[in-house]
């Protein structure tokens, strides 16, 4: 579960950087990269939720 959290933090940082680049500079390609990162985060959050539920049952 620790690796999931670390990976999510890493992807979030990439998302944040790209989203800020789109908002501040109007960089369209950065927006596409931010959207891709948000989809990856969504998948990781679902995995985290499953792992967290399993851990709470023990």
Notes on the protein architecture:
There is one protein chain. By secondary structure, this protein is an all-alpha fold. It is 93% helix and 0% strand. The protein has helices spanning 2-25, 28-57. It is elongated, with a radius of gyration of 14 Å. 5% of the residues are buried. The mean pLDDT is 95.
What is the helix tally? 2
Structural class: mainly alpha
Return the average pLDDT rounded to an integer.
Answer: 95
Query: What is the chain-wise order of helices and strands?
Result: HH
What is the share of helical residues?
A: over 70%
The end-to-end distance, rounded to whole angstroms, is 14 Å
Shape: elongated
Biggest sheet features? none
Rg is 14 Å
Strand content: under 5%
What are the segments in which pLDDT stays under 50 over at least 5 consecutive residues? none
Count of beta strands: 0
């Amino acid at each position: 579960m620790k690796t999931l959290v670390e990976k999510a933090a890493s992807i979030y940082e990439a998302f944040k950087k790209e989203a800020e680049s789109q908002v501040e500079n109007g960089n369209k390609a950065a927006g596409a990269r931010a959207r891709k990162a948000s989809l990856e985060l969504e998948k990781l959050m679902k995995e985290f939720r499953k792992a967290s539920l399993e851990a709470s049952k023990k």
